[in-house]
Amino acid sequence: MTTETAPPLWTGDAARAAMGATAHGTLPARIEGVSIDTRTLRPGDLFVAIVGDSNDGHDYVVDAFARGAAAAIVAHDRAGALAHAGPLLVVPDTLRGLEDLGRAARARTDARIVAITGSVGKTGSKEALRVALSRSGRTHAAAASYNNHWGVPLTLARMPADAEFGVFEIGMNHAGEIAPLARMVRPHVAIVTTVEAVHIENFRDVRGIADAKGEIFLGLEPGGVAIVNRDNPHCDRLTTLAAASNAGRILTFGEDPRADVRAVTIVTRPDLSIVDASVLGERLAYRIGMAGRHIALNTLALVAAAKALGLDVALTALALADVAPPAGRGARRELALVGGTVTLVDESYNANPASVRAALETLGQMELPWRGRRIAVLGDMLELGPDGPRQHRELAPVALAAGVDLVFTVGDLMKGLHAALPPERRGGWAATSEGLVATVVGALRPGDIVMIKGSRGVRTERIVTAIEERYSEAAAPRAAAEAAPVGRRG
């Protein structure tokens, strides 16, 4: 009896040809994966020595081979010093080499590709669509928020040749960043979840953000489908941009009566959401394994994508019941402390005004145990420009309307929210997350629900870690956790 061996992701010769690289040493017959980080590299991976702002991957090539790398992509000027380390693929620039490898992966596949951008909801939508499309065929998507200039080509380079679907998240901080990545991905379906004042300090106004998000349509394959949020004030602007692209069709989603995929009713419960939708005139009811009205609305775009791909929409929607929030984006854990438990809601990965409002509203919908309190720990929302102080202050009525009992705040901008809250709702303020750890940990009581959220630069995940280390897990996690990803952009 023979065991069939799965084909490799790449052969050494195929990778060399894709990049026009020069080979040093004997190239491997099998490359099983692509890595830019020796900490997560697996035996058989191709290591790419990316030069970053603070680290040079060439300094880790020897370590990569020690960990089992099959080969490494290095730059011409470093090849001589690394010739002894192992098989090398030598290129003028390693990031350009990774991009070429990604383009080659896209060229060799017959997979139907969906690309997602938006100010809020990209990663959650990408994960949900990955789960949903997996019901219909082999689906490839990044395991984390790899949505920037190295994350997108890395995700492409990792795509197996026999994938049937690919889901890509594309982010940006400035205008002009999405277009080249979208042209690399060449999606058949492109989604803009929403447009909000995120990274606004890098733009003249929110219309500029809409234009930057609309760059995703520039990568659409001829006759592709553009999907736009009908409820967003910039819908018409995005629709105009889509109409000027290769899009053969534009679909809209939302609660607006004019939306092609419309939410007729949304019911939110503590741990899930239920949607009754109209999909181009046909009714569809489905459940989502995550709480939150904003999440329910984003799933309408995913249903629209399934429709655009010609899939069984009911089967795709059914899979959304299996979606669970990852660490940093709403993952929940029951932790034990003397006399009961505390529920930790980890929203620490990033923050902007729209996502913080949504997180507070979701916290307000969670059922409190007897004598429990709703507690929010909020870090600064960065890159909001001159309007930042006002947007922080204006979170006060949102927190009060959600029934939040205590609000702890981190950072200079959050001083405004701290001052705007009634004294009895002020849990405490600190300049840094580390400075607030002891106060938050010491304040927790049995029955409390504590939600933690802040921009990446504030490092509110350190408060999450401190709570987890102080209190043991009381039961199985409510949602599967995954390592907090890196490289995310808006």
Description:
By secondary structure, the chain is an alpha/beta fold. It folds into 3 domains: 12-94, Udp-n-acetylmuramoylalanyl-d-glutamate--2,6- Diaminopimelate Ligase, Chain: A, domain 1, CATH 3.40.1390; 109-322, UDP-N-acetylmuramoyl-L-alanine:D-glutamate ligase; 331-473, Mur ligase, C-terminal domain (Protein-Tyrosine Phosphatase, Chain A), CATH 3.90.190.20. It has helices at 12-19, 61-66, 76-82, 94-108, 122-133, 151-157, 178-185, 206-214, 235-243, 293-308, 313-319, 353-365, 388-393, 395-401, 414-420, 433-443, 461-470, and strands at 22-24, 33-35, 45-48, 71-75, 88-91, 112-117, 139-141, 165-169, 189-192, 225-229, 249-254, 261-268, 273-279, 282-288, 331-337, 340-347, 374-379, 406-410, 426-430, 449-453, 472-473. The strands form 3 sheets. It has a 9-stranded mixed β-sheet, with helices on both faces. The radius of gyration is 23 Å and the shape is globular. It starts with 11 loop residues before the first helix and ends in a 17-residue tail after the last strand. Residues 475-488 have low confidence and may be disordered.
Fraction of residues in helix: 25-40%
Structural class: alpha/beta
Major sheet: 9 strands, mixed
How large, in whole angstroms, is the Cα Rg? Answer: 23 Å
CATH topology of the largest domain: UDP-N-acetylmuramoyl-L-alanine:D-glutamate ligase
Output the number of helix runs. Answer: 17
Work out the strand percent.
15-25%
What does this entry show, briefly?
The protein is of the alpha/beta class and about 500 residues long. Helix content is about 30%, strand content about 20%. The termini are far apart.
